[in-house]
Write a structure and sequence with these properties.
The chain has 179 residues and is mostly beta strands. Helix content is 9%, strand content 26%. The strands form 4 sheets. Strands 4, 5, 6, 7 and 9 form a 5-stranded antiparallel beta sheet that branches. The longest helix is centred in the first third of the chain and has 6 residues. The radius of gyration is 33 Å and the shape is rod-shaped. The protein starts with 6 loop residues before the first helix and ends with a strand.
Amino acid sequence: LLEGVDSNKNYILTNKVVEVEAEIKQKQLTITADMLVDAGFAMTKVYDGTVDADQISDKLMIPTGVGEEQIVLVIDAENTKYEKATVDCTKANVVFKLDETADVNKNYKLENTEVVVEGTQENISITPCQLEVTAEKLLNAGFEMKKVYDSTVNASKVAPNLISDKLNIPTGIGEDRIV
């Protein structure tokens, strides 16, 4: 299209298409905790005395803000950690990267590769470990129960150290013991 005073009379375009080199840069994305939670992020495990992740969301679809496009994030389970190793923990440091196999991801670059997620017991949780106390575990912990015959089956402390009041029983998890 020619513009200007009498430009359409004084000039004739011989070509209407011109090839030029152009660069399309990747869109920068900052991943937030809310984005992960909205995409269904979850991590749960049974208490094992560590902050390591066990069952964790593998891949998440995250909206990009460009039309309906979604990137695919892969959660790094090896480096994602709970804030603390107790059953009341609902906070985690989540490490992630773009899924290299997802074609749409080539158009985006992540500003960050980890974020702290403060969740709820439904999406970030450590559940109590179930323990079974057996006779063998009691005996190995030093349990004794002795009494002088009195025709009953009731335990009674008839002399010092004849019945154990407290035992430290190993749980099998680190140095944890139950008393």
